[in-house]
Structure formats: structure tokens, C-alpha cells
């Protein structure tokens, strides 16, 4: 049986009116470029979309993960898009294109990618999550809930196919070399949570059912690790298969109803709620956010994509969005203070260290008393005593 691969490759190559939304002309360019990819038989099918200012290429093919032809198609699409973006002087044109020349795979070159290869089941429902203004660890909490929390996923209790649990593959994204660990649920849940709670460091890469069936894949690419400085947040994508012995689509989506707090938002430097939104609201405005996630549902059918359905574009998520905006409003009142602003360590790759450097030489080893009338008076009166 031929295996199908879904490759979601994304990049911020420029946006309208600041870091807000991908302009239509870039979406059109990407559709044209991927259509040529179909004609050249590099890919079977595609869907072009956007998460805020990130251009998202969702592709199916039979070439497996990390395939140079597929990755080059995405890279060339982003290069052509960057040229057009620069010509039209849209904002941050070519932002994520960190390498000069393509070297076989977009990994380590700026764009982010999540890929998954499987034998299609008789019916294959999948969802592609696309987030803006946040980092890959943003998926840790919902993925844990989907695969390991029976209060989220009824099937963990009710369905014998899910009952045995799942295997999580986690990446230490701080390490410069590939570094992975795998953990089993339910028996290693506490150890797993000890890692997953450190969302800036340990990121879920893939999730498998206990029989080895792959069920989730996340883009773990860290832009600052590649560039050595802040160049926008990673704005990660994730692919999740649903139903027939896996969590149902409704159980997958349920995990995004909190909405939980993630790192990112303005200047990649703030904590904010991850709002589940429909495509019509996939644009970050207030304080460049709050961070958002879109969910596009497809059926994968003989290597082709049927759909999408815009899954969060539903009244059922209104309550989550409202709750999220209340949290956002509350956090904003705290301005530059932690924990709304991220910790100093987490700000390492932002522009904050440059400001800090200016203060560094001014620290002395005794308390400073400023000169002035009041301090002079105090000095005199204490010498009389
Ligand atoms: C976050 C993001 C924005 C920018 C901010 C400043 O990922 O892209 O919040 O960091 O708008 O942008 P510049 O530095 O381009 O003026
Ligand atoms: Mg941007
Ligand atoms: Mg973005």
C-alpha cells in the first residue's frame, strides 16, 4: 500500500500593515507555484492558507518526510513570494528566509515544517493547526489533553483502542543538536508533565498510538536558534489525525477551549491566551495579538485533500474567545511587568539585552544616595546628633 505524506511548510515572508495578515497576492502566488508542483508531479494536492502573517503551504505527496523535491518546491515558493513582497514593499518582506541558498531541506533555514506519513485508513480525517504569535511549546498543553487527559478525551476511558495510551516524542529545542526523548502515557504521565510544563524548552514533536500508529506531528523549528537573534516567533503548525481508534475530532478541538496562556504576542516577549479562531479572524491586531490558532479540517482521500472546513469558525468557541479576551485585557494592565512580560532568560534573543547592556556598567557595590537639598539636610542633622 502506498503511504501518503502530509507536509505543512510555513514562513512569514511579509505581511500587510505591519505583522498582521498575508496579502492576497502572496496567497495567489503560492497557489500558482504549488499548482506547478502538481503538474510536475512533485506533490499530489495542496491547500494554501495563512495564520495571521504566516503563509501556510499544506501539501500531500507520496515521497516521504524531508523530501528534497517537496521542500525545494516550498522554498522556491517562498523565494518567489519574497521577491513580490519586496517589490510591493509589504512589511518584513522575506523575514523568515534566513539562508541564502537551499540545501536539500527547509530545516534550519527559517521556514517551519510539520510532516506525517501514514497508510490511509478507509476514511482519514485530519486537522491542520496553524498558530500565529507564539512558539511550538504552545501545543504541549492541548496535545497532552487530547492524548492523556480523560477529562478532555472521553475515548481514553470508553474506547478500547485508545485505552492503552500513547507515546509522546519530545524534543529539547534548546539543544543545538537533535535531542529527543519518548515517554508513555498513562504510566509516565507525571514525568511527561515535568518536561512539557517547560514550554520554551521541551516540545512535543510527534505522538503515536501504542501500536506505533502516528497521530500527531508538530513543527519544532526555533527561528532564534537559527538566526541567533529575535526574528519573530516560530508560529508553529501541527497535524493531527482523528477518529476510528484515535481521539474524535471533537475531542481534539475540545483541548483548545481553555484558552491557555502561551509565550509570544507583542515582540515575542509576552504571555497571552491562545485564541481559537476562524480564518476570518486570523489576523493579530490588539498589541499584535493576542496569539491565535486556526484549525482546518480535511479528509485525506487517495493522497488528495478534500476540504477544508474552518473548524474554529463556530459559535461553540465564542465562549473561549470571550474568556481569552478577558484574560488578555487583564494581562495588558500589567504592561512591562512579569509575568505578562516574559522572564529575562526568555528575553535573551529579543532586543531587551541591548537595553540592559546600557545599564550594566552603572551598577556599584554600595547603595546610592542622590545629591540634593534633602539629602544634605539629612547629613547635617545626623552629624549634629
Ligand atoms: C511578533 C511580531 C511583532 C513584532 C512587533 C515589532 O512575532 O512579529 O509583535 O515583534 O510588531 O515589530 P518591528 O520590530 O518589525 O517593528
Ligand atoms: Mg511578521
Ligand atoms: Mg507570524
Describe the overall structure:
With 385 residues, the protein is of the alpha+beta class. It has two domains: 1-115, Alpha-Beta Plaits (2-Layer Sandwich); 120-366, no CATH class. The protein has eleven helices and 15 strands. It has helices spanning 24-39, 68-87, 140-148, 155-158, 160-163, 189-196, 223-227, 249-254, 318-332, 352-360, 373-384; strands at 4-11, 45-51, 54-61, 112-118, 125-132, 166-172, 180-185, 202-209, 214-218, 237-241, 261-264, 270-273, 275-276, 292-301, 304-310. The strands form three sheets. Strands 5, 6, 7, 8, 9, 10, 13, 14 and 15 form a nine-stranded mixed β-sheet that branches. The protein has a four-stranded antiparallel β-sheet with strand order 2-3-1-4, with helices on one face. Helix 1 (24-39) packs antiparallel against helix 2. It is globular, with a radius of gyration of 23 Å. The model has no long low-confidence stretch (mean pLDDT 95). Bound molecules: fructose -6-phosphate and magnesium ion (2 copies). Fructose -6-phosphate (F6R) is lined by residues 18-19, 92, 133, 232-233, 266-268, 288.
Amino acid at each position: 500500500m502506498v503511504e501518503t505524506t502530509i507536509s505543512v511548510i510555513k514562513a512569514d515572508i511579509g505581511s500587510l500593515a505591519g505583522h498582521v495578515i498575508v496579502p492576497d497576492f502572496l496567497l495567489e502566488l503560492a497557489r500558482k507555484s504549488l499548482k506547478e508542483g502538481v503538474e510536475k508531479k512533485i506533490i499530489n494536492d495542496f491547500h494554501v492558507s495563512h495564520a495571521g502573517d504566516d503563509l501556510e503551504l499544506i501539501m500531500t505527496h507520496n515521497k516521504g518526510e524531508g523530501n528534497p523535491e517537496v521542500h525545494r518546491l516550498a522554498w522556491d515558493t517562498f523565494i518567489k513570494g519574497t521577491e513580490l513582497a519586496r517589490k510591493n514593499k509589504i512589511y518584513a518582506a522575506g523575514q523568515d528566509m534566513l539562508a541564502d541558498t537551499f540545501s536539500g531541506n527547509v530545516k534550519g533555514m527559517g521556514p517551519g515544517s510539520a510532516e506525517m506519513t501514514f497508510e490511509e485508513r478507509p476514511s482519514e480525517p485530519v486537522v491542520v493547526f496553524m498558530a500565529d504569535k507564539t512558539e511550538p511549546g504552545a501545543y504541549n498543553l492541548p496535545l497532552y489533553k487530547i492524548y492523556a487527559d480523560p477529562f478532555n478525551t472521553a475515548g481514553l476511558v470508553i474506547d478500547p483502542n485508545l485505552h492503552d495510551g500513547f507515546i509522546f516524542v519530545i524534543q529539547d529545542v534548546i539543544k543545538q543538536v537533535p535531542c529527543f526523548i519518548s515517554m508513555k502515557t498513562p504510566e509516565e504521565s507525571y514525568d511527561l508533565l515535568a518536561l512539557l510544563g517547560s514550554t520554551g524548552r521541551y516540545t512535543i514533536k510527534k505522538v503515536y498510538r501504542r501500536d506505533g500508529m502516528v497521530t500527531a506531528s508538530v513543527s519544532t523549528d526555533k527561528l532564534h536558534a537559527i538566526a541567533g537573534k529575535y526574528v519573530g516567533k516560530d508560529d508553529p503548525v501541527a497535524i493531527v489525525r482523528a477518529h476510528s481508534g484515535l481521539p474524535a475530532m471533537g475531542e481534539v478541538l475540545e483541548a483548545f477551549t481553555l484558552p491557555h496562556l502561551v509565550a509570544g504576542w507583542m515582540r515575542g516577549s509576552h504571555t497571552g491566551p491562545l485564541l481559537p479562531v476562524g480564518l476570518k479572524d486570523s489576523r493579530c491586531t490588539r498589541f499584535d495579538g493576542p496569539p491565535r490558532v486556526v484549525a482546518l479540517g480535511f479528509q485525506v482521500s487517495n493522497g488528495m485533500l478534500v476540504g477544508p472546513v474552518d473548524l474554529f469558525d463556530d459559535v461553540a468557541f465564542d465562549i473561549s474567545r470571550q474568556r481569552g479576551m478577558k484574560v488578555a485585557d487583564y494581562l495588558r494592565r500589567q504592561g512591562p511587568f512579569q509575568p505578562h512580560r516574559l522572564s529575562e532568560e526568555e528575553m535573551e534573543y529579543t532586543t531587551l539585552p541591548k537595553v540592559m547592556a546600557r545599564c550594566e556598567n552603572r551598577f556599584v557595590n554600595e547603595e546610592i544616595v542622590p545629591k540634593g537639598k534633602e539629602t544634605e539636610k539629612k547629613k547635617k542633622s545626623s552629624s549634629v546628633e
